[in-house]
Design brief:
Layout lengths: L2 E4 L5 H10 L4 E5 L4 H4 L4 E6 L1 H20 L9 E6 L4 H15 L6 E6 L6 H13 L5 E3 L5 H9 L3 E4 L11 E7 L2 H13 L6 E4 L6 E3 L4
Parallel strand pairs: 1-2, 2-3, 3-9, 4-5, 4-6, 6-7, 7-8
Antiparallel strand pairs: 8-10
Helix pairs in contact: 3-4, 5-6
Amino acid sequence: CDVIFADSFGHESFLLKAAKEFPEVQFCHATGTTAHTENVANFHNAFASIYEGRYLAGVAAGLKLLELYGADITADEAKIGYVGAHPYAEVISGYTSFYLGVKSIVPEVTMDVQFTGSWYDEIGEKNAAIALIDNGCVLISQHADSMGAPSVCEEKGVPNVSYNGSTYEACPETFIVSSAINWAPYYMYITKCFSTGADINANWCGGIEEGSVVLTGIN
């Protein structure tokens, strides 16, 4: 293979090692953080400005709160929860953007965040969602890919904004919308660079404008 693409945060150290061993092969890593400091010519990082999608998902969540509680929403009715993975910049920027999106519609909103310490832990995400709901949160979003939080929301009748894909089929009564990363623009970018001999950026990031950040249909 002339170009190798890795799609997990945990792959980075191994991909970097391979890039140093095989300098003629291009290694492109999704969600990585070290290409700009390692200065290995054939090693590249890429991500998406997913905070853009999370902000818009927050706007949809705010509209849902108004639908449920009306314009005279109280502080208790405007309390939402967020199931986070790790306390990393990616997660923090995501929940901050989501919160600001909700706040643009419901200025009174407050938000609790609970971390699981894992990128994928269905039981941990389920327990975090339960704890947030038990603590008075009336709407839940997440930086987590499993069905843990959405399934709890469906069971308890709490509106949910999921991540990286619609949960409508499994959670038709509570799914609102989902923001997601679309890697197709980056695939097209790296293959075009390789086929034309152009340099691949050490760090690449696309947003809504590039088609790298998308939202599902609203339920």
